[in-house]
Amino acid sequence: xxxxxxxxxxxxxxxxxxxxxxxxxxxxxxxxxxxxLKFAKMSIRKFQGISTEKSLSAQEQQAKISDVRKIxxxxxxxxxxxxxxxxxxxxxxxxxxxxxxxSKMLKATLKWRWEFKPEKIQWEDVAREAETGKIYRAxxxxxxxxxxxxxxxxFQNTSDIKGQIRxxxxxxxxxxxxxxxxxxxxxxxxxxxxxxxxxxxxxxARETAHILQNHYPERLGVGILYNPPKVFESFWKxxxxxxxxxxYKKVRFVYPNDPQSQKMMxxxxxxxxxxxxxxxxxxAGFNYETYAQWMREDDKKKFDMINSGSSSPLPxxxxxxxxxxxxxxxxxxxxxxxxxxxxxxxxxxxxxxxEEETQDLPLSCKDVAGGEAVDxxxxxxxxxxx
Length: 386
What we know:
Layout: H1 5-15, H2 26-48, H3 58-72, H4 75-78, H5 85-94, H6 99-116, H7 123-126, E1 135-141, E2 147-151, H8 161-177, E3 186-191, H9 202-215, E4 220-226, H10 230-239, H11 245-248, E5 251-254, H12 259-268, H13 288-308, H14 376-380
Parallel strand pairs: 2-3, 3-4, 4-5
Antiparallel strand pairs: 1-2
Helix pairs in contact: 1-2, 1-10, 2-10, 3-5, 3-6, 5-6, 8-9
């Protein structure tokens, strides 16, 4: 289920009794939210339900993956990167091992990637958005070897929502590209320095939640909310019921003067590498020029591999020459949860009308287990889709 930020925001705004939250005592403000919060929980209970995460054996998991391949039909073989076992497993976990829902979710991602073309976003396209370092990749990993994205919402510098979303997607794709071979999840460090209520864009927040939950499932390992203000805590209580339980269980509120918070940070990070802003001992801050050069080098690695047409352990994005036989939006037919299936919960993709020549369907190679990249373009050129 997506985060319905708009609904949460309306409830939150309704609960406010004055123009500035600072004019109300924290306890009074919390009380004013109580009735709205109860209503929010009740209103979504019928959608969210009581869902317990399934625990399957390795054999049962593999059987589910095979079931999804059957539902997807020939497209699974034509797109070995996004339809790898590791990728399908993430979509299944995100949908509690429901093969029909996971298949629908994966096909929606195929369509989104065809339309949005995240692999074609380059540094120069988002450089303006990145000037303040509101989102950037750290030059160190956590103790488990996971890539770290640092987010500083208080450093918002534009009002262009489309540009903000493209910047976010670029950063997420870059973070996935740099994941270690044995990792598929990343860490988010969110610094609330300078954050105010005015920083919240409901439309941007809603689109962000939609993209991350639906097109990058199971990519978040842990999210650290560092020293959030009281007003955000109240907002979070309203948003929480709209977030999938698996997601909000990964979120941690961390406070600089709390011993338990400090212990958790020391368990997760090398404190000599962790930025001072998060309680670490690394005093080096964000340097735009240095980071820009770093991203340009990453872009070059990505596009050099694309142009060479070779497979590589680099989790970059695949492409192919123009005028080649590729998937079209018609190939990625959507299957709703109510669709009737011919066998069990299976339904095969409609792969008619595949001879239309269009641009490529962009896919991320980091979906291959163990970091082994497969050239989707090469696979697509082996023959026409049935």
